[in-house]
Write a structure and sequence with these properties.
Blueprint lengths: L4 E8 L5 H12 L6 E4 L4 H8 L4 E4 L13 H11 L5 E2 L8 H9 L4 E2 L13 E2 L5 E2 L4 E2 H7 L10 H4 L3 E6 L2 H6 L4 H7 L11 H4 L6 H14 L7 H7 L21 H7 L4 H12 L14 H13 L7 E4 L5 H7 L7 E5 L2 H14 L8 E4 L2 H6 L6 E7 L8 H14 E12 L1 H13 L20 H12 L1 E8 L1 H15 L9 H11 L10 E8 L1
Parallel strand pairs: 1-2, 1-9, 2-3, 4-5, 5-7, 8-9, 10-11, 10-13, 11-12, 13-14
Antiparallel strand pairs: 6-7, 14-16, 15-16
Helix pairs in contact: 1-2, 14-22, 19-21, 21-22
C-alpha cells in the first residue's frame, strides 16, 4: 500500500506538432516537472528535450486497424523502437492491450508500462502482469475527464481525489494543453490542427475559458505551493518494486510456533517441568537456519543487540542463557576480538542452527562463540562463582514457567558474575506493554493480548517490583534501563493506523525507518515491551 499521493505527469503525444510539444514541456519545466512523453512519431522537439534531460521518452504505438505504424504487433513495436531505441516504457494508443503485445515488449527489454486508465480510482499501486511486466495505471487523463466529469474544470471539486493515497499518474495530451480543450465537441472542432498547430495560429484556436490548460496550471500552482514532488515514471519504477505490492508469504513463517486453542488452555495448568518441555518442543519446529528464528520482529531484535553492544566495555566472559540459534553472540563476535563467549540452549534444533550460522559467518568473526546444547537453568548452577563478566538474557526470563523460577535464575546470575560484572536483561516489560496498549486503545486500535497462541508463555517483568527485588534482595545495582519507545510508537501504533484494515507486516519499510529513527534517539522506556535492563554486581 502507498500511504501518500505520488505524482507523475505523462503526455501521450498523439501526433501533435512540435509547437504543441514545446508549449507543454516548457510549461511543465517552469514548475520543475520532468514528464514522460509517449511518442507517436519522429519529433525534433522531443529529441531536443531528451538531450536537455527535460523529458523521459516512452513509445506510444498504435495497434488499431489502419495504423500508420505497421500492420502487425512486431513491425509496429520495432518501428517505434527504431525511432526511440532507448525507450524504457510504453503506452498503447487508446490503451489497446493483449498478451501478445506484452510478450513482444518483454522480448525487446520493456519491463514496465502505463497501459491502463483507472480514472480517479484511489489507492492505485503497481500491478504485476502475469508475464512479468509492471503496470502503472493512469489515475487521471484529460479526455477521460471531460467525458466522465462532464467538462467540469473546477479543480476544488477533485482535490480529495488527487490527495488521496496512491499513484497519481496524470496524462495530458500536448495538443489539448496547447489549445486548452474544454470538451469533446471543441476537440472535434479543432482536431484538424493537431499536426500543424503553430505560434502563428494559436490565438485563433486556443479556448478562452476553462479547459485542460487552465486546469493543469491551477494544479501545478497548488501542488508546487504545497511542496509536492513530481516523479518521472522511471523513478516510480525504481521506487516501488512490484514485489512489495504482491500478496506475500507470511514474513513470520519459521519465526513463531502456532499452537491450537487446546494447547493454549492447557499450558497454564502444566507443571514447571511440563511447561519447559512444551516450550522446548515448540522451538524444535523453528527454522533454525534463519538468523531471526526466535524473533519475528527483526528490527526490534537488532535494536536490542545494538543496545547490548553499547553496554559491553571491560573485557570478560560473555554467557548467553537461552541463546537460541546464537545470533546475538555471533553479532557480538563480529565486534569484540578474542573474547570468551558461551551460549546455552535446551533446543537441539536451535543449537544446530547456531552452528550453521557460526560456520556461515566465520570469516567475519573476531571471536568464536561456543554453543552448548543443554538446560541453561541447570548449566548455570555448574558455573564457578564470580567468574563471568557478562550474562545476557533475551526473553529467557519471561519464558520461565513461573515468577519463582524467574527469581531463582536471577539469583544464579548474581552468583556467577564477577564484581563489576553486568547482567544484560533484555526482557518483556509489563509497564511498557501496558503503556503501548493504552496508547493503541486511545487511538482506536485493539489491545495486544498478554498471551496468545503464538506467544503462549510470556510472564512479563513488573518493572518496579523486579527492579526493587534485584537491587535490594539480589544485590545487583541498576545502572541503565534502555527502551525503544519511539520505535514501538511508530511500528505498533502509526503503522497499523496507516495500513488498516490490512495486517501490518514486520518487514514493512516503515518499521525499518522506525528502527533508524530510534537508533538516533535516546533509548527511553515506557512504550513497548522490549526493554534492556543493565544491572552491575557491586
Amino acid at each position: 500500500m502507498i500511504n501518500t499521493p505520488v505524482f507523475c505527469i505523462t503526455c501521450d503525444v498523439d501526433w501533435a506538432s512540435d509547437y504543441c510539444i514545446e508549449e507543454t514541456v516548457n510549461l511543465l519545466s517552469s514548475y520543475g516537472v520532468k514528464p514522460t512523453l509517449f511518442a507517436t512519431h519522429d519529433s525534433d522537439a522531443m529529441r531536443k528535450f531528451k538531450l536537455m534531460d527535460k523529458i523521459e521518452v516512452g513509445i506510444h504505438p498504435n495497434f488499431l486497424p489502419g495504423s500508420t505504424h505497421g500492420s502487425d504487433y512486431c513491425s509496429i513495436i520495432d518501428k517505434m523502437l527504431q525511432m526511440y531505441p532507448n525507450a524504457k516504457t510504453f503506452r498503447s494508443h487508446c490503451f489497446f492491450d493483449n498478451v501478445n503485445i506484452t510478450i513482444e515488449m518483454l522480448k525487446r527489454g520493456i519491463h514496465y508500462d502505463s497501459n491502463l486508465c483507472l480514472y480517479l480510482q484511489p489507492n492505485i499501486v503497481p500491478l504485476n502482469l502475469d508475464l512479468g511486466i509492471t503496470r502503472f495505471p493512469v489515475f487521471w487523463e484529460d479526455d477521460s475527464h471531460w467525458i466522465n466529469a462532464d467538462a467540469d474544470w473546477n479543480l476544488e471539486s477533485y482535490l480529495k481525489d488527487f490527495f488521496a493515497p496512491g499513484l497519481k499518474i496524470l496524462n495530458f495530451h500536448p495538443f489539448n494543453v496547447a489549445v486548452n480543450t474544454p470538451d469533446q465537441k471543441y476537440y472535434f472542432k479543432v482536431k484538424k490542427h493537431i499536426q500543424t498547430l503553430s505560434a502563428e495560429i494559436i490565438n485563433d484556436v486556443r479556448y478562452e475559458g476553462n479547459g485542460v490548460r487552465t486546469f493543469l496550471i491551477e494544479l501545478l500552482e497548488l501542488l508546487t505551493k504545497q511542496h509536492e514532488r513530481f516523479y518521472t515514471l522511471d523513478e516510480i519504477y525504481q521506487m516501488f518494486p512490484v514485489k512489495d505490492f504482491l500478496v506475500q508469504s507470511d514474513e513470520t513463517k519459521g519465526r513463531i510456533t502456532e499452537h491450537n486453542d487446546y494447547e493454549y488452555e492447557q499450558y497454564w495448568g502444566m507443571t514447571d517441568r511440563e511447561k519447559q518441555e512444551f516450550l522446548r518442543a515448540s522451538f524444535e519446529k523453528r527454522d533454525a537456519k534463519d538468523k531471526y528464528a526466535t524473533s519475528r520482529d527483526f528490527n526490534a531484535r537488532e535494536l536490542e543487540i545494538n543496545s547490548i553492544k553499547k553496554n559491553i566495555s571491560r573485557k570478560g566472559t560473555i554467557f548467553d542463557m537461552g541463546c537460541g540459534n546464537g545470533y546475538t553472540l555471533i553479532s557480538l563476535a563480529k565486534v569484540f576480538e578474542n573474547w570468551e563467549m558461551v551460549g546455552v540452549d535446551f533446543s537441539k534444533n536451535l543449537i544446530e542452527g547456531a552452528m550453521f550460522l557460526l560456520n556461515e559467518t566465520k570469516k567475519e568473526l573476531k571471536s568464536i562463540p561456543e554453543f552448548v546444547f543443554g538446560d541453561a537453568i541447570e548449566y548455570v548452577k555448574k558455573i564457578k562463582s564470580n567468574s563471568v563478566g557478562y550474562v545476557i538474557t533475551e526473553r529467557f526470563i519471561q519464558n520461565m514457567p513461573s515468577v519463582k523460577v524467574q527469581k531463582e535464575v536471577i539469583l544464579e546470575v548474581h552468583r556467577i558474575l564477577q564484581a563489576g560484572g553486568k547482567f544484560l536483561m533484555c526482557e518483556g516489560s509489563a509497564d511498557g506493554f501496558k503503556g503501548l496498549n493504552e496508547l493503541r486503545e486511545s487511538v482506536g486500535l485493539y489491545r495486544i493480548p498478554e498471551t496468545s497462541s503464538d506467544n503462549i508463555s510470556a510472564i512479563r517483568i513488573p518493572d518496579k517490583e523486579f527492579e526493587s527485588y534485584i537491587e535490594n534482595e539480589v544485590g545487583l545495582r541498576l545502572i541503565a534501563k534502555n527502551g525503544f519507545s519511539s520505535f514501538f510508537i511508530i511500528s505498533r501504533v502509526l503503522h497499523p493506523l496507516l495500513v488498516a484494515p490490512q495486517r501490518p507486516r514486520f518487514d514493512a519499510k516503515i518499521n525499518e525507518l522506525a528502527r533508524l529513527i530510534q537508533e538516533n534517539l535516546p533509548p527511553e522506556a515506557g512504550y513497548g515491551g522490549n526493554v534492556l535492563w543493565v544491572f552491575e554486581k557491586r
